[in-house]
Design goal:
With about 325 residues, the chain is an alpha+beta fold. The protein has helices at about 15-65, 110, 120-125, 135-140, 305-310, and strands spanning about 70-75, 105, 155-160, 170, 175-180, 215-220, 240, 250-255, 260-265, 285-290, 295-300. The strands form four sheets. The protein has a five-stranded mixed β-sheet. A two-stranded antiparallel ribbon has the order 1-2. The chain has a two-stranded antiparallel sheet with strand order 3-4.
């Protein structure tokens, strides 16, 4: 008698659907955990960037006797290249603050290049020539990891637009902004901040009467919120709310706001935040570098008065951030 073939066991359609459903559930449970781990790693790398910037600031201060300026500026009444001098423009229609000629415009991040292991790039810069010049084109387009938060999804090369018209040039972004202070007219009076940085500033550590551990130096302002070039100020350009940013309104500000941010009357990550505000690319807050070189976490829930207090250098109101 011939042997009967044995039937191989097989999964029914119902069993396959159950297996697929279980796999989908497991993936759904796993993905948030993976994203949480990735964000935690990004936050640590971002903190390390700021620690490196803090060490650079201290080394710069040791060598020069003061902190770098937010950006350098030459009085427009003094001679400047014709290619730089342009018409005065409204920062946006309906407001009385005007653009000034912003020359040469090199910012704090450019001055720190030798202290963040970018000596070769630093040697390519003529700090007496404008950031908008053709001689600076190659430098403007260099992406630097130390100035890029890994959670900043908008970082990279971007077009800098004037108030109206086509793009002026392309530049690489900076995820970090120097602290102008609390309140004040950053756009119209960029040299009058009460923080550590302003136009042509040269603040010394001895000027920080609130205490270096209580004074904000550099905070986050990711390109996904507002894109600004790490080189400093782009004359006649604007800094704008990035399309798709997690805020309710889109605004633009004149060039002085590119290397600086200030603490206004709104909390961190407020949905009405403007391009001149700090903003965190991480869930619930941002990393912040303080004048003593420490990096601490600023929660989005931090009280506005406390946030304002740490933004000033000599307001007489030293405050501690909530743990």
């Amino acid at each position: 008698m011939s042997a009967q073939p044995r039937r191989q066991p097989a999964y029914t359609l119902l069993e396959l659907l159950v297996v697929i459903a279980i796999i989908a559930i497991l993936i759904g449970l796993l993905l948030p955990a993976v994203q949480k781990v990735r964000e935690a790693a990004n936050r640590v790398r971002c903190s390390n960037n700021l620690k490196q910037i803090g060490l650079a600031l201290h080394n710069y201060h040791d060598d020069t006797g003061h902190l770098p300026p937010a950006y350098t500026w030459v009085d427009p009444n003094q001679p400047a290249p014709k290619s730089v001098v342009g018409p005065r423009l409204f920062d946006r229609p309906g407001r009385a603050a005007f653009f000034e000629t912003n020359w040469p415009g090199w910012g704090w991040a450019a001055y720190l290049l030798p202290y963040v292991e970018q000596d070769n790039l630093y040697r390519q810069i003529d700090f007496t020539a404008p950031t908008v010049g053709t001689q600076a084109a190659a430098v403007r387009a260099v992406r630097l990891g130390v100035y890029t938060c890994p959670s900043d999804s908008g970082a990279g090369i971007f077009p800098v637009f004037p108030l109206k018209g086509t793009a002026l040039l392309d530049a690489a972004t900076n995820s970090y902004a120097a602290c102008y202070g609390a309140g004040g007219n950053l756009a119209g009076a960029p040299d009058r901040g009460n923080g550590l940085f302003a136009r042509n500033s040269s603040v010394q550590f001895k000027d920080i009467t609130d205490g270096t551990s209580h004074t904000l130096a550099v905070g986050e302002r990711p390109a996904r919120f507002a894109r600004a070039p790490w080189v400093g100020v782009i004359d006649q350009g604007t800094i704008r709310t990035t399309a798709g940013a997690p805020v309710y309104q889109s605004l633009m500000f004149p060039p002085p706001a590119m290397p600086m941010a200030r603490v206004g009357n709104r909390p961190l990550d407020d949905p009405w935040s403007e391009p001149i505000d700090f903003f965190g690319p991480h869930p619930t807050g941002m990393n912040a570098l303080f004048a003593d070189g420490s990096v601490r976490w600023v929660r989005a829930s931090t009280a506005v008065d406390v946030f304002q207090a740490v933004a000033t250098r000599d307001g007489g109101e030293p405050a501690d951030l909530p743990e």
